[in-house]
Amino acid sequence: MTSTAVTHKPVRWGRVAVHLGCLAALLVMLYPLAWLLATSLKPADEVIASLDLLPGHLEWSNYSTAMEGVNDVSIWRLLTNSLLIAGGAVLGNVISCSLAAYAFARLRFRLRGPLFAFMIATIMLPHHAVLIPQYIIFNQLGLVNTYWPLILPKFLATEAFFVFLIVQFMRGLPRELEEAARIDGCGPFRSFFQVVLPLTRPALITTAIFTFIWTWNDFFTQLIYLFDPDKFTLTLALRSFVDASSTSAFGPMFAMSVIALLPIVLFFLAFQRFLVEGMASSGLKG
């Protein structure tokens, strides 16, 4: 009879420690979300008095109160306003930033280098530094208390970060594709829309995701330009909810926060595959 020796692999305690550290970091990052979900189901007195994560009593009426909205404006109207502004910002950034990036990455024109450097320098410019001049311009045009100040700048390629992101992606695409299209009679615009733009999809999806999240969570700019409660977004409604319902309505406020968080989570989950692809690929496969 022959016996087979069973070999045991040594335990790599370093890898175990790394996994435990990652798990601990994950729990720390997920705790605020768990706290938000739990607090949205707590009674008002328990929100302030208790430090327990799990509610002692489930207060489902917080969500029914949040669904009623604030200032006689339903939550569906607030949600529609938020989607309109975020959707317009996404459309504007994708169109304008991709066109500007194509000009900087593929076309040859005078002062291209200085103009690109000037555009990159605007990334370091604080948003608050240009807010007052922009407000004066939109006020003179009669566009204050409308959605145009929140959407129109996105169609002018004002987000230098996304222009730079798409430029770097386009520079990784082979020029032979455009040269072949040029031989077939395609001009710059046709080459852009039919050759370059489809290959830039991962970068465009990344731009859309971050634009949607940043615009959806924007509070300060919306607070400056929007006065009418009928035009408020969910972000502004959270503040107005406290003002209208007194400081004891923490439960409905957190319930509305959960509702406001859902579109961001769904949007990210729907396009996360393209976000990873944009970070990992160079624009071509095979």
Automatic annotation (TrEMBL):
Annotated protein name in UniProt: Sugar ABC transporter permease
Domain ABC transmembrane type-1: 79-271
Principal location class: membrane
Membrane topology: Multi-pass membrane protein
Species name: Streptomyces swartbergensis
Coiled-coil region: none
GO biological process, one term: transmembrane transport
Gene3D superfamilies: MetI-like (1.10.3720.10)
Subcellular localization, as worded in the UniProt entry: Cell membrane
A Pfam family reported for this protein in Swiss-Prot or TrEMBL: BPD_transp_1
The keyword Protein transport belongs to this UniProt entry's keyword annotation: no
Membrane spanning residue stretches: 16-38, 83-104, 116-138, 150-170, 191-216, 249-271
Family according to the record: Belongs to the binding-protein-dependent transport system permease family.
Keyword Transmembrane helix annotated: yes
Keyword terms: Cell membrane, Membrane, Transmembrane, Transmembrane helix, Transport
GO cellular component: plasma membrane
